[in-house]
Amino acid sequence: MTYVIHGAAGAQGNPLLSRLKTAGKPVVAVGRKSGTHTDGTPVVAAGYTSVQELASVYAGADGVFVHLPVAAEEDRLAYARNIVAALAEARPRRVVVSTSGAVVDSPHPQLQAPEDSAVRTLVRGLEESGLSHAVTAPRLFLENLLLPPILDAVRTEGVLRYPPAADFPASWSSHEDNADAAAVLFERPDITGTIAVGQYPGITGPDLARAFSDHLGRPVSYEPLSPEAFGHLLVPLIGDAGAAGVTALYERLATAPDNTIGEHNSAQRLLGLSPRTTAQWLAQIGL
User: Fold this and answer.
1) pLDDT digits over 108-134, tens only?
2) Averaged in consecutive runs of 10 residues, what is the pLDDT profile of the chain (287 residues)?
3) What is the DSSP string of 156-219?
4) 265: Cβ contacts below 8 Å, ≥ 6 apart
5) Buried b (16+ CB within 10 A) or exposed e, 39-69
6) CA–CA separation, 179 vs 176, rounded Å?
7) Is 11 helix (H, G, I), strand (E, B) or coil?
8) CA-to-CA distance for 119 and 137, rounded, in angstroms?
């Protein structure tokens, strides 16, 4: 029996991979080509476009971790359907899905991912499959602040530029926090549904800037960035389609009073996990 990790070389999959291996779990990574991960983990080739390839990897697994890649929404929707079909065929013992910041559990309807979106299709398909599963629902990742155009401005200008307004509270979290939650959920089949991951209460842009300032030992101020300007910065990094999706997300955020998790389904309450503070995260990454 093994644990199958999508995106094992990426920001969300790699920390989970490390936790499972440290715990002595047999792990397999899913990739475009078969081979070996940098830490020696075997990589099995399976494409999101093939139900048969995915099902062959999922078959007999103790756990499968899935998050949709950054791509055009039309492609992501096809991937979600294929993943659901493969999981339904292979019937692994446990599935954990990350929404990767898409909102599926907010009281603010304007923030909710549309019912026909890829992430909703994936979550709904799992619910209908009858498989033991749970969904981690982070909001905004602290690692977004390490994107070159964002971090460069912090270092050279002492300005943290990011889309939310200065008085907009959000439940920020690290990829490491999400991995912590996913690892626990693999061991807790009694917990199902959506588990919110992030700081509660939420924090604002100026709160983030103060943490950077304290960590770096020099002033850092916060300056809101429009969703369109943020998307433009991301085009060289994730392409036009990916940047368009991010822009749309932050345009929706701008219509709501906050982007914070609820205490009732938080990892703090359900899993006993406290997310890293911004200061703890900055110290951990050694910026």
Assistant:
1) 888 999 999 999 999 999 999 999 999
2) 88 93 93 82 89 96 95 93 98 97 88 93 96 97 95 97 95 98 97 96 97 98 95 90 86 92 96 97 92
3) HHSEEEESS-TT--B-EE-HHHHHHHHHHHHH-TT--EEEEES-SS-B-HHHHHHHHHHHHTS-
4) 105, 193, 194, 195, 196
5) eebebbebebeebebbbebbeebebbbbbbe
6) 5
7) coil
8) 11
E strands within the chain?
3-6, 27-31, 35-36, 42-45, 63-66, 95-98, 133-138, 140-141, 159-162, 172-173, 193-197, 221-224
Q: How many angstroms separate the CA atoms of 202 and 204, rounded?
A: 7
Closest of 110, 206, 112 to residue 164, by C-alpha: 206
Tell which residue, 70, 66, 73, 77, has the closest CA to residue 134: 66
The C-alpha angle 188, 196, 231, rounded to 5 degrees, equals 135
Beta bridge pairs of residue 60: none
What's the token pair of residue 48? 């999101």
pTM: 0.93
Q: Which two tokens stand for residue 145?
A: 């602040």
Predicted pLDDT at 31: 84
Give residue 72's pLDDT: 85
Q: What is the CA radius of gyration of the chain?
A: 19
Task: Output the pLDDT for position 191.
Answer: 96
Token output for 277: 């503070």
Q: How far apart are the first and last CA of the chain?
A: 38
> What stretch of H or E contains 18?
helix 13-22
β partners of residue 220: none
